[in-house]
Amino acid sequence: MKPETLQELRTQNLITPEQFQKIDTVQTKKIFSVFYELRIILYLGIVLFSTGIGWLIYKNIGQLGHYASLGLLIITTFGCFYYSFKKGPPYSRGSVKSPTVYFDYVVLLGCLLFVSVLGYAQFLFHFLDESIQEVTLLTAVIFFATAYRFDHVGVLSLAVTAFAAFWGIRISPQQWSSSEIFSQPNLKIAAIVLGFIVSIVALILDRRKIKPHFTVTYINFCCLIFFTGCLDGVFDSSTSGLYILLTGMGCAGAVYFAFLNKSFLFLLYAFIFGYIVATYLLVKLGINEPVLWFLYLMSSCAGFVWFIIRFKNFFKRN
Amino acid sequence: MKPVYNLDSLTNLHLVKEAIQWHKQGRISREQLDQIRQAYPSSFYHPNFFIRILLFAATCIALSGLVGLLALFFAQADRMTVSALCIIYGVISWVVVEKVFAEKNKHYKSGVNEALLYHSVGFIVGGVAGLTGADIYAVLISLVIVLSFAAFRFIDLVSTLVALCSIAAFIFYSFYRLGGGFQQVIPLVMIVCFSGVYFVIRKARASENKTWDNCLVIAEAFCLLVVYASGNYLVVRELSVALLNLNITGGQDIPLAWLFYFLTVAVPGAYLYFGIKKKDIVLIRVSLVAIAFAVFTFKYYFSLGHHEITLTVAGMCLIGIAAWLFHFLKTQKNGYTAENVLSESWGNVNLAAYVISQTMGGNKEPEQPTQTGGTFGGGGSTEGF
């Protein structure tokens, strides 16, 4: 923005003199923020540190002594949570501003170290062999509690992934691309049910105004889980009709949520998964004429583009 | 050269975008934002980010259908005819995106624009490649020309970046083909050329006209990165081995090794120093990347093999530095602050959350053969187990 433009806003009385003062100091770099840079450094530091410390303990297990290292981990975890509870603002249903810039990262570090403690204890005592599922659930519950208590979206997504893992579903791009998202073949039903139920719960929480800014994160994971389950069903099952129907319903839900929340990522999901299934249906019909296929691609997508532009006012955020 | 877009609308759009950021920061009220919106109207069709991706994807699929149909018609033609037709088709689609979408329907970076534009560039350059028998000079030169034109007319960031890459590739390839001593000076030539380009761009950015500001920022960052990479010991050494068939045995080293060692360390330091001194965010950000890569370079050749200690110590250092700076900059020092004074549009909470859940290994499971379904939401430290 040109410097004169801000002056212009002032002379037209669109902003007050104080606002002009404040924004002008930023524009002219009299105040210069390195907020994002510092956050990235801090984040990288935590990633490196938590990876390194785990590796270090693992390599030096003989010398350090198991109990000493486990004790150290527990103390650090405890320290992180102690700090969080001491410094953290009281619980609120809305979004909470963190008391210090690095508060969020301490909470995150505490959660990650907690998992390390569990993993290390399992390595030492093998006490979880029988109850690995329950421990995953416990992790999820603790993460959920932490996320809600300290208003932390990052921990929330860790919680959702852990919760999905409890049902045997692993969410990550790598697994997604190698279609190993489900560790067992019959998990698609679990995925669909899980996606559905969690999204309903998330919407109820949203209605009750309990952390409404978490809803998008929930629905995002739900969409991915739900649609992957559906596609899995459409492609390799004898009852693909049912799954096609489910995908359609899912798309309708995603479109509804996109408009409700004005977050159009979900429109994108609905389009992609809907289009895949529609195209799959046409393949099933056995059309072999390339001209028809090209016409289908062209007309369907051009029509879709036209639709979005024609009704552009529906897709406005503000 | 002028962009295809109406300049007044463009300025207004950017002003309103900035005002939205002020509003998100709580610096101006909702009413003020609405008043600014009314005072600075823009008639562009400029949808939000996801709609743009959606439109881009849909347009690409639609175009692939169209191209497929056309290909069926001309399937029997010989190569020259097809290449010429590609160029004609590319030019026609360029005219369509300019006249129909940008001018008549006032699309501004709508996703449709980009899809049509890239597909047009692709066909023109592909046609040139076909006509010249994929001559690498012809392809690179046509890429630079067409993409620069696209970058100017459509203020397009991707075109800017790819055009610059083509220029770099052109310089590299020209010297590479000459062989012998010319190959040895490629790093120095790249450093000189792109430093020159960098200063020209800086000057252009400082001028009154802010129309292409974003393109210039991208170009600046690219130049800085190329300058650093050309002087980096690791890059020079590995590329020399791979492309110039350089054999490095035992006690030998690449020619001018001392210079490249020096540049590996000095350039990031200089970037950081001047970045902080001039309060130049592009320099500061690039310097952070360069510092990380410099550390990596030295670790790569002089590692003692204790990666776990390196990681832990590096992590502790970074946490320490960040915590200290946060503390130090709590009150302003020379105009620097750790406060988030104006949010940027990409500082998105949900994106950050996604990155955390993916990089922190929230879904890795410890390698346990006995285990069937469940996983830990394992932290990074479970990797060693």
* Average residue-wise pLDDT of chain A: 82
Point out poorly predicted stretches of chain A.
none
Count of individual domains of chain A: 4
Helix content of chain B: over 70%
Report the average pLDDT across residues of chain B: 82
Q: What is the chain-wise order of helices and strands of chain B?
A: HHHHHHHHHHHHHHEH
Strand tally of chain A:
1
Shape of chain A: flat
Our count of helices of chain A gives 14
Query: Strand percentage of chain B, roughly?
Result: under 5%
Count of alpha and pi helical runs of chain B: 15
Report the uncertain regions of chain B.
344-349, 361-385
First-to-last CA distance of chain B: 60 Å
So what's the overall shape of chain B?
A: flat
Structure write-up:
The complex is a heterodimer of chains A (318) and B (385). With 318 residues, chain A is mainly alpha-helical. Chain A folds into 4 domains: 1-32, no CATH class; 40-153, no CATH class; 167-286; 289-318. Chain A has helices at residues 3-11, 17-27, 35-59, 61-64, 66-87, 103-125, 132-150, 153-166, 173-177, 187-207, 215-235, 240-261, 265-285, 290-310, and one strand at residues 32-33. Chain A starts with a helix and ends in an 8-residue tail after the last helix. With 385 residues, chain B is mainly alpha-helical. Residues 344-349 and 361-385 of chain B have low confidence and may be disordered. Classes of the chains: A mainly alpha (318), B mainly alpha (385). β1 (32-33) of chain A pairs parallel with β1 (336-337) of chain B.
